[in-house]
Design brief:
Strand content: under 5%
Strand order of the largest sheet: 1-4
Number of helices: 10
Helix content: 40-55%
Number of strands: 4
Radius of gyration: 18 Å
Distance between the termini: 48 Å
Amino acid sequence: MYSWQAGIITFLVIWHFLGCVYSLYIHRGLGHRYFTFTPILEHFFRFYLWMCIGFSYHNWMQHWAAKHRKHHRYSDTSEDPNSPRYYTLWQLCDVSHNDSTRANYISPEEVEYYAPDIKTTDDWVERNVYVKHRKAGMAILWAIFVIFFGWTGVVLGASIYYFSQFFGIVIGNYLVHKIGFTYAGNQGQDQSKILCPIGIFFGGEEIHSHHHNDASKPYFHRHWWEIDISWVYARVLIFFRLMKLNSRYL
């Protein structure tokens, strides 16, 4: 059995890569179509998201992309489906509903309107493992933590099982529009923030204002002192031809 320090380091490493996978694959890949991924890399990303945050539900790819694109169009206005300006964190974490008066709602018609180019993967693994047993991956990860790190693993595994599924909401919807700096400037009613110019722990999502000010760029940094770690990883993966930058962003 390894030490509690090793358990915490392992936990932080997993969360670091979770932030990067979420930013690269879900946000930049599906939401904005900056990248195209090889089937092997894409499946690895899907597996990692299922294992760490149980991110898989019926038609989730198209649904998430549509909601995110609507968020960009109406950022921090009353039409924004996930703005902390109009909803509390508790309300934003409430995603399992079909009520147009609550946060995170987007109609089936809007899903088709905003994301007609996105088709959710519908292979055997998606249907019979990722969607059907959504929390199984987090349970397995919890068990692994317990086996290797004992009581420390119990606590760390529990935090993954019960709280990591809200990872994208807390960071991608709440913090980056509620807390931080505004030195990048905002346009219109947009309230996006810069949590930190060194975007390492949350995959570069910390540098959020730049992205909202100009969503045409696949990287979020704009100054020499800023670091968008997901863009660094993207360049490495592009070099090894595991993904490519779509031609419109070259």
